[in-house]
């Protein structure tokens, strides 16, 4: 199927939408909040947007209810718009959406077996004959449903609520059970409302999925930038801030808790359901984000031997973490594997079912720290590769994140062409375009094995001659020009310099060395890998061919690459919807063998080799 | 042994001290806080008090270090004073003690088996080989001590503390265990410090016992008036306030929690030990105080069928109740039996071991609501009798509580004599003197069976003639004069009126009817009772003979009466020092058969009969 890129502004949200899909459907599916008062039937005319790139002719109904002048200016109804092009969609300001965050993922089948369940109880009314306590009579009702008396327990907030609920509802109540623990008591029969939220807390972004715990239905998806970015962009700077700044840990902890509470509020805002109906949340995060979320000092992760304070799966009281869901709600925290292979990787592995795979698969989540796992149902080995920020466009001369204005893909055709997120004049390059650019330079023989940009007279590939003009000298070093001053949004040229290429070599070298070490640790050859699964935002947007050409992924595997989207989010959802999957996450975390690259024999020379390019 | 009454002012604290005992020892034993800087060796001269009644000649050391003028004014050293008389002791103002609160009790033997225990652990240091998490390595140490891996758990406050403690103490720590739960982690070897506090929360007073959980040693006893008295003196007015006043429950709840936190601070003030070393508290209270302590609406206790919200024993997190002990400390709440037979009664029964007694015993805790239990190891029946406030001196014309100035005992000798708490001119009568007075009137034939004061010419007992002058007419009703205007502290006469006698008849009738109903429910006769145990403050101060003469206690049992002091406090201590005793409390609460007097067949006529006196 053909996909188009639809960018929403303000907010720079990028969706990849299948051709022919209705714009409203695409927005709904992605969980973007937008009002469709008439339900999207084209009657109310309220879902106006301005389509500033990729505008198509209005449909008759739009001609009826939108003035000609407005039609000319690109005003359309989202519910009547079909996605046949890349689109840049401007929303009314109040509908500002979130930044370019990956919220789609491929679901796998599983059995819903929620940690929490609801039971409707008709409790014996108190009388002079039946004068046992409220709690005693409630337990009697549960014992009739098969619970063991001695195991039944509850907590003070429930005991405080119980007398009033019982009397208000004439002893007909719905109990919310977590195992043998009563975590909720609601008047009358409320079995049809039991919600949870799964969270993927990334270093940069937080995504939350509002789920119906009974049906598994996804009711809403919300996302936000991780507000901790104000205290440092990457994991290492967060670790430093938490350990060395006055109240640093508290500030980071409070920021993420506040962000989660805001996302919860946002997720339920459109439903008619109160936050007290959310009884559970699950958390997938990297080890540092995991510790900070829990308010645990992550300092020990930062120094050798990189030991986390806590790796085990945890079930906590939401109130202890000041999470604004039901007062007696639970937080299910997925386990970590090691200091730099966290619960997010466990969630990815859970979502891919690597632990039950007959085939050997390579799972890669590319980022500042790239997590790599290799395995099958036989065994799994994993490592963390310190790639640095090049893939995220940082420390690259013209680099930027994958937001509007970023060149995200580069094509070496008759002349150099590129795509810009949101259309318009480019402002910089993001990681995926860096890959495309360098891959082309490699394929055209413009770079040598060591990554040096050759002089025009050294080029042997005739096609390379087409791009001679792009080879420039800039501030004393070689560079490859992508856009001239007059072609950019800011009037400065956009290019990839020799230094940028060195940065990329370090980054891809770290990842490739990680793969090499894992192959060695597992005892197999690269051709034994049946499938390569690319998880996460960057993995989803990069061009797999470019990744293979530069050697980020072994070229032999190009045809085996599959993008699996936000698999960490999927894993978090699975762990919330199924107690079995949650236990499986624990088993995965325990069974995965962590390989520490820094102490692996000959790692430095493997890394050195991996920074090279394989030239034609 | 001969006892003397020693009253301390300000504060009106009454101690019964064996003749010849050192005053300092008596104060220490009773847990009264007072500074003895030199340890009571008579060297520093700092423990000065003024003895205003019962003063003896100074000893030589006192003559050396106290000026003659001061000696004349009654100044003595507490550490050099022997109790050979009733004493009135004035303390420096800053040493104001608490009101007349019973803090002594007879201990029984038991096995210390604390809920909480400390283990010293030397945890494996992290290395590149042993890079599992802090928590994992801590668990490994515990597994070596016999714990099961899957059962081990802890909570967020411990996880937050763990990394720093481990590093600060180079992986040598002391874990505080509650079952398989790690509730504390302290640097190095701190096994010799593990504290708890047992609380008896009465309607009027709260007593707290600071205990060493390892040795069982009582380190301190503290007490305070229950600050809820500001919102109503008795249980019924508290119930009304909690249910009908705006935020009534919260006000009462906060008041008791604040009082407990103050008592904790007071208890540890003299020790060098911080409150974070207190890991557990136990709570005995009547059902209403129990609910309010927990913040649970007690409304259902107030109305038929008088059902509590919660009777079961509870182990709660101290932090959930905002109790200022260790952040991860536990609260052990003793179970209730019924709406008006609470955890305090369970504690009394636990302290008396009624559940294992071969003999049938009657246990009585006299108060506004008198709790009565009858039983043996075969079975126990219990009830609550609504005696009203007469025993506490309330609703009695000259009545007052058992504080300084109260006539507390009355003797019919050649002429009428009485004792006054603290000595001096009397200000009123307290409950025990009301009993003595009426018992004398019954024995002398001055009252008839129905409680009517007879006219002087109706008296047949020649001894009664001695007290003819005490028989007066006052405001249109008969009365018995105890002290004339010129003999009292306020210039008004003190007497017992016909109405007062009626009040007492209602009170003793309710208690006696309760005993009758329990005998009937148990299926035995009064002579089958082997022992009568009187618990609580009033039970400890009353004259047992008087109680039997007026029929409060069946006269056949007079020789079988034993005072057991603050047995509820003893029970609370047992439940804290021994997990076995705590479980036993649960069994007692489950096994005791509650008898509701109001719905017992023929209760009203039994009560009516019991208001009568048995006249000679």
UniProtKB/TrEMBL annotation, chains A, B:
GO terms for molecular function: iron-sulfur cluster binding. Pfam families: Fer2 (PF00111), RACo_C_ter (PF14574), RACo_linker (PF17650), Raco_middle (PF17651). Residues 4-95 form the 2Fe-2S ferredoxin-type domain. Signal peptide: none annotated. InterPro entries: 2Fe-2S_ferredoxin-like_sf, 2Fe-2S_ferredoxin-type, Beta-grasp_dom_sf, Corrinoid_activation_enz, Raco-like_middle, Raco-like_middle_sf, RACo_C, RACo_linker. This is Putative metal-binding protein.
